[in-house]
Amino acid sequence: MSIEAIIFDLDNTLIHRKQAFEAYAERFVERFIVAEGPEKREAVIERIRLADQDGYRDKRELYTELHADLELKNPDTTVQEMLGFWYGEFHKFTVLMDGAKEVLSELRSRGLKLGIITNGSLRSQQAKIDRVMLRDYVDSIIVSGGVHIEKPNPRIFELALQELEIADPGHAWYVGDHPTNDIRGAQSAGLHTIWLEGFMPWAEKGIVPDDQIGSLREIITWLDRQSYSANTEEGAS
Using one digit for the tens of pLDDT, what is the confidence trace for 137-147? Predict the structure, then answer.
């Protein structure tokens, strides 16, 4: 089986969203929320982290809730101000997953086409990608907000394959952390899948990833195994 392309999720795959959100939440509390003392501050940040639902919460809904439930430094602060802070500041906290650029560079040096598929607003996701300068490392970037299709809809994976000019989805692999959006979605479009463990619990029934890794750097070792298996099969034929 030849591998022509590897496509990646963005948040908690190529970039460490959980780490970025913790740093952002610190700044958000500093700017808007009354939280005296380290214990209170830590409890408020944890409250915000849980309410965010790892980024899957609608942002207006999230900030409407936080505006109502938390003690504001300035009672005149509006939900719109909080939303503006999110859109203006969160991307500044973006951090790469350990080894992300090294892995992408190595994969490209081996002749593979590379892509990103991510759910989210076009503005926010593009800002994060540009903040850590990932654009030049991949051949295709599909943001759900730009195409009005979200993972796990197989159509968004098909769009990426078209951009990468991959005719057979069986020659492409998808790497992501979310069992439903990434693994089920990619498999429904015919791609092979690698689950990046450690961010989302596995709650999907009836599907299993084709492979799984504990860190992004393991992609290279995985690819070496695939190449060895392919060479062995060719030698035996």
Answer: 999 999 999 99
pTM for the complete prediction? 0.90
DSSP 3-state assignment of 190? coil
Across the chain, mean pLDDT equals: 93
> Is the distance from CB of 186 to CB of 180 less than 8 angstroms?
no
| pLDDT confidence of residue 24 | 97
Q: Are 104 and 113 in contact, with CB atoms under 8 Å apart?
A: no
Measured CA to CA, the distance from residue 169 to residue 161 in angstroms comes to 7
Question: What are the CA-CA distances from residue 173 to residues 30, 43, 55, 121, 222 (Å)?
Answer: 42, 40, 24, 24, 12
DSSP state of 97: P
Q: CA-to-CA distance for 219 and 98, rounded, in angstroms? A: 12
Average pLDDT of span 85-91: 95
Give the confidence band of 2 by pLDDT, cuts at 50, 70, 90.
confident
Name the token pair of 5.
Answer: 């392309």
Q: Which two tokens stand for residue 153?
A: 């809809």
Beta-ladder partners of 15: 11, 96
Half-sphere exposure of residue 33: CA atoms within 13 angstroms, side-chain side: 23
